[in-house]
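FORM 12-B: Structure-to-Sequence Request
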């Protein structure tokens, strides 16, 4: 089967590489010539564990290639995937679909023979119909069907998520498209992966509903953490106990500085706008979005409080800048709120992240960048853990106390046990756990 993938961002590149691993022939298209040139040389523009090896293996085998020339790839394709960005539209929170519609116009020019056109991008309800209308208007003679096939990939675990998914969602109106998509995902059958067939519109909504539910779950436990701090109780004990209820489950019940990344923030805003336009506002999701935005800034206040109420003239060491570990993605990361607020309060900021530094340098200014955790904290007045990278989980607490000018540790991910940190002589502040 020949597959063409429009877009070589996170979703397009991971999906293309994984489909080629199935044995299909995949051509990834992008207008960015420099990016395509890098990919052709084996230079992967994002950090995702295992992706570089998968791309190299399948490119060498001739199953995966990269080009800016869409026409022949579309003409030869059995299925064409649209996996371009749908960022929040400036000013109103709606998803910006300009890249999706531009891809539709380009696809229309080169369709040859029966083709399934698949929206892999996260798009509002009705987008698939509109993509079909654009193609049909440009090419009334074209023989194609529309499919919605949303992705459910976690950054840092994307390959595992693709190869062993909880479910595959396929929205389509025709048996012919359903048959082709069933064949496409046949290699997953050995894992007995549930495939959910539905309409285009339901498939599009499933993606938004899933992400917004998870964002709500994160926000719920963060609000419980706020309550725990007021009552002197422990959010981790609460989270563990309620997570043992099979109706709730333990995942996404980890309190912290708020969610970020390329999906949850923009998808929540897009669904909010869709619901408002439909006359059925989602007040729960509206609250989730507003609370999460505010929470990131409040984490800087937590650091300031841990430093005695002022960071003016002090040096704060930040460990972790990306929105989560095992990715270099800085989009909507809490650090983008925390660092500038600390600087505005008079602090000098040092920072280190295992993978996010190149992107962070573009987004943060006046930061003293370091190459490892211990040099970052040497001589600082406080150490703040923002992202729970594995290398930060077993730091030498005694060494930390010896390097810091003032023994203050602010753990925004609750990765240490309070009694162990305090036994090492450090003043410890965490999230949703008793002080003192």
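FORM 12-B RESPONSE
SEQUENCE OUT:
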């Amino acid at each position: 089967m020949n597959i063409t993938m429009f877009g070589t961002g996170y979703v397009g590149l991971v999906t293309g590489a994984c489909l080629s691993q199935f044995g299909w022939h995949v051509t990834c298209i992008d207008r960015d010539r420099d990016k395509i040139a890098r990919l052709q040389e084996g230079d992967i523009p994002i950090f995702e564990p295992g992706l570089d090896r998968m791309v190299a293996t399948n490119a060498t085998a001739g199953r995966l290639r990269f080009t800016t020339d869409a026409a022949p790839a579309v003409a030869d394709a059995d299925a064409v995937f649209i996996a371009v960005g749908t960022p929040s539209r400036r000013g109103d929170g709606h998803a910006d679909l300009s890249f999706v519609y531009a891809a539709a116009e380009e696809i229309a020019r080169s369709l040859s023979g029966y083709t399934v056109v698949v929206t892999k991008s996260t798009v509002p309800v009705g987008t698939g119909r509109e993509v079909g209308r654009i193609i049909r208007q440009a090419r009334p003679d074209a023989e194609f069907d529309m499919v919605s096939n949303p992705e459910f990939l976690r950054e840092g675990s994307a390959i595992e998520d693709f190869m062993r998914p909880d479910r595959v969602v396929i929205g389509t109106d025709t048996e012919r498209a359903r048959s082709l998509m069933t064949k496409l995902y046949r290699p997953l059958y050995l894992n007995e992966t549930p495939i959910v067939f539905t309409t285009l519109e339901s498939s599009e909504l499933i993606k938004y509903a899933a992400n917004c539910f998870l964002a709500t779950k994160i926000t719920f436990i963060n609000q419980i953490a706020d309550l725990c701090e007021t009552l002197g109780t422990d959010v981790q004990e609460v989270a563990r106990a309620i997570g043992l209820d099979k109706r709730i489950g333990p995942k996404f019940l980890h309190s912290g500085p708020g969610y970020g990344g390329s999906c949850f923030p923009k998808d929540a805003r897009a669904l909010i706008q869709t619901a408002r336009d439909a006359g059925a506002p989602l007040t729960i999701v509206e609250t989730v979005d507003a609370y999460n935005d505010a929470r990131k800034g409040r984490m800087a206040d937590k650091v300031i409080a841990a430093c005695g109420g002022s960071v003016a003239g002090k040096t704060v060491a930040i460990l972790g800048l990306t929105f989560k570990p095992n990715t270099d993605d800085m989009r909507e990361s809490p650090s983008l709120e925390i660092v500038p607020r600390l600087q505005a309060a008079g602090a000098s900021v040092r920072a280190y992240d295992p993978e996010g530094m190149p992107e962070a340098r573009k987004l943060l200014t006046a930061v003293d960048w370091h190459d490892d955790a211990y040099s970052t904290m040497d001589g600082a007045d406080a150490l703040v853990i923002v992202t729970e990278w594995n290398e930060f989980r077993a730091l030498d607490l005694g060494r930390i106390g010896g390097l810091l000018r003032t023994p203050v540790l602010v753990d925004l991910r609750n990765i240490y046990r309070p009694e162990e940190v305090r036994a090492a002589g450090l003043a410890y502040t965490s999230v949703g756990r008793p002080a003192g």
